[in-house]
Q: What sequence folds into this?
């Protein structure tokens, strides 16, 4: 369109009048110009000036209109290019005639390269048919078309697009397709996720209930009907209180409602009632759903039927209670049996010891030895059974204190020294001279294991020697000690070695087995070793002797050096036996013996007399309390289990009586109660030491000597 065509009608009329006036004037001859009057010339010039001004004004308007048109066109193209939707114009054959920047970006191709390509090149194989059907219908019906397609960008990346198509005409009147491309990948993914979630909810074996903020049911999944017997139609819009069983109180539901109303998650177990009246248990989690303003829009409850699990739990708890009751009964039985066995054993072994110290002929000496050996064997059986019972229940208290290794090994050899001498065996101790003098560990438990290993070696060896060695080692990268016991006994069959550490097992378990014992010693030793982080191994061959090695992770105690002790000692002796000296003259060492058993009272009285002490006897705890006077007794030997008043109560009463004087008499528990916790109960009641029955004169003397030095 020319500038003339773009002028408004008024401007065109003025221009035509001015042009006509100039033509008429130019057509006149110059000589006729003089004939014109000044008035006519002035009027013509004035009219020409007016027309000129009007034309200039109209030209200015045209320039402004053109500028606005250009600006509008620029804005249109900016909006077109930067629109969030891709726009394409397709020719009749499907080739791209024009495209905005968004479409080019969406297809990952420059706009100049995109024009002239067929759009079908960007449509996935499975979407081709739908695309062609939509285009065909658009061109035939001239009606807008829409479809969702899976498309592929130029770089091969797939995406989902929603296509909107309308018809148009090009400058030649040929039909075109105007198309909007909308990337709906995120929407499609969200829809797929929603469908997956819905499928999961619908197919879930757990009951899922959605309520509004007021607790009214908006949705239940199919599992709800299976679990409760109610259909969705029966419960929608209603409150779940219809499921109440009546077994929970109002406070239970109030707590639940206050929790979820405050926007918190509630978890718990609910006992509900089905439509048919049967009761069932559910594990329930109720979570809030918030809207964009953080207001609670709904609650979602996920419930799992745990009725069968609760039933099994009830059965399990009942079984545990029965087991605990059985264990309590077993513990009570073992405690009673231990007490009833140790009490007479104390008399048997104690009087056998006193008898052996009187003038006897050879036959009487032999009888006394047999009594002592039999009593000690019975005591070992009792100790093994009690130890194994405690370990089975996990009662393995461990201590850590400095241990003098040479003294430890020597003390472990002493109980087996006489048996080895009677059999003519050489019993040797070999301690590596480079070892530090002391290590940190549980001396009592290590000695218990060594006594067992040495005792087995002596028991099963008929001739030759038993050697106890202690050498440095390592265990799992930590410093350790190896305590090995080597014997020249018959050895062990290979098939038996794996059974040695099982309870109640010996190599020969027939009725003709040559050795006595419970078969618990090695099992107890293995478990004690495990508790201390150590190991016990055995190397043996039938007919070639055996070596048992206890390896324990022990580190040198702080501030200890290498001892000057000799490397080897025979028969476990590093010096003479401890001599039991009387703790003072008889007139100054009065001992109160509180004991209800007559034989044990008589034994204590005899032993104290042999140790140079005087004894006063009390038959029960009440007599002990009545006999007590501040400063009267050097020591009180207190039994635990007695009629009228037991030893614990008597000890507590004596401690109360001595407070005003400020004097404290040592009280030693002298009892057959040796079950786990008995020692601790005695000390907690106010006793100062613990001496278990049966005890020897040497053990009693050692206890008295400790308090004599105070």
A:
């Amino acid at each position: 369109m020319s500038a003339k065509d773009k002028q408004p009608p008024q401007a065109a009329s003025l221009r035509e009048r001015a042009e006509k006036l100039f033509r008429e004037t130019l057509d006149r001859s110059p000589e006729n110009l003089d004939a014109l009057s000044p008035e006519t010339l002035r009027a013509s010039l004035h009219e020409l000036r007016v027309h000129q001004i009007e034309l200039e004004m109209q030209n200015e308007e045209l320039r402004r209109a053109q500028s606005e048109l250009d600006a509008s066109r620029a804005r249109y193209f900016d909006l077109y290019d930067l629109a969030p939707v891709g726009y394409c114009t397709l020719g009749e054959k499907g080739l791209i005639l024009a495209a905005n920047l968004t479409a080019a970006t969406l297809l990952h191709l420059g706009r100049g390269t995109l024009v002239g390509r067929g759009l079908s090149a960007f449509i996935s194989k499975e979407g081709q048919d739908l695309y062609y059907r939509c285009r065909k219908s658009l061109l035939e019906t001239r009606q807008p078309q829409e479809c969702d397609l899976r498309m592929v960008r130029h770089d091969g990346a797939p995406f989902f697009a929603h296509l909107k198509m309308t018809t148009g005409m090009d400058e030649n009147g040929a039909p075109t397709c105007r198309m909007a491309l909308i990337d709906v990948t995120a929407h499609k993914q969200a829809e797929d996720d929603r469908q997956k979630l819905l499928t999961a909810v619908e197919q879930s074996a757990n009951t899922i209930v959605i309520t509004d903020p007021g607790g009214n049911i908006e949705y239940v999944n199919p599992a709800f009907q299976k679990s409760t017997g109610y259909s969705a139609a029966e419960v929608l819009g209603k409150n779940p209180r219809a499921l109440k069983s009546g077994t929970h109180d109002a406070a239970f539901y109030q707590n639940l409602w206050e929790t979820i109303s405050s926007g918190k998650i509630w978890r718990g177990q609910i006992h509900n009632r089905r439509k048919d009246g049967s009761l069932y248990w559910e594990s329930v989690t109720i979570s809030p759903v918030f809207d964009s303003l953080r207001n609670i829009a709904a609650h979602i409850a996920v419930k799992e039927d745990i009725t069968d699990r609760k039933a099994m739990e009830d059965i399990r708890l009942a079984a545990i209670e029965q087991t605990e009751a059985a264990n309590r009964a077993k513990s009570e039985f073992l405690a009673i049996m231990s007490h009833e066995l140790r009490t007479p054993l104390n008399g048997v072994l104690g009087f056998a010891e006193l008898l052996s110290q009187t003038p006897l002929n050879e036959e009487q000496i032999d009888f006394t030895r047999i009594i002592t050996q039999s009593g000690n064997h019975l005591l070992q059986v009792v100790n093994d059974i009690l130890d194994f019972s405690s370990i089975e229940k996990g009662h393995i208290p461990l201590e850590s204190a400095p241990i003098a290794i040479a003294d430890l090994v020597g003390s472990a050899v002493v109980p087996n020294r006489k048996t080895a001498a009677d059999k003519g065996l050489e019993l040797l101790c070999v301690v590596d001279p480079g070892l530090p003098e002391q290590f940190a560990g549980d001396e009592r438990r290590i000695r218990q294991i060594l006594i067992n290993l040495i005792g087995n070696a002596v028991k099963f060896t008929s001739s030759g020697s038993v050697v106890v060695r202690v050498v440095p080692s390592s265990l799992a990268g930590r410093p350790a000690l190896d305590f090995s016991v080597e014997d020249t006994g018959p050895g062990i069959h290979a098939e038996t070695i794996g059974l040695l550490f099982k309870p109640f097992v010996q190599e020969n378990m027939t009725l003709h087995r040559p050795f006595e014992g419970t078969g618990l010693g090695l099992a107890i030793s293995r478990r004690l070793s495990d508790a201390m982080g150590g190991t016990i191994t055995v190397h043996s061959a039938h007919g070639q002797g055996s070596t048992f090695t206890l390896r324990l992770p022990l580190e040198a105690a702080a501030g200890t050096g290498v001892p000057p002790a000799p490397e080897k000692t025979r028969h476990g002796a590093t010096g003479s036996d401890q001599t039991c000296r009387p703790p003072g003259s008889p007139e100054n060492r009065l001992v109160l013996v509180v004991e209800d058993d007559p034989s044990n009272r008589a034994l204590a009285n005899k032993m104290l007399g042999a140790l140079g002490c005087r004894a006063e006897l009390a038959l029960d705890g009440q007599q002990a309390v009545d006999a007590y006077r501040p400063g009267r007794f050097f020591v009180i030997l207190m039994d635990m289990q007695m009629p009228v008043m037991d030893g614990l109560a008597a000890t507590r009463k004596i401690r109360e009586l001595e407070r005003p004087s400020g004097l404290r008499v040592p009280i030693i528990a002298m009892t057959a109660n040796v079950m786990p916790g008995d020692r601790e109960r005695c000390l907690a009641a106010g006793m100062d030491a613990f001496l278990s029955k049966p005890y020897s004169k040497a053990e009693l003397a050692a206890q008295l000597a400790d308090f004599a030095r105070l």
Q: What stands out?
A: Residues 110 and 270 are 64 Å apart (CA to CA). The longest strand covers residues 158-169. The two ends are 130 Å apart (CA to CA). DSSP finds 21 helices and 23 strands in the chain.
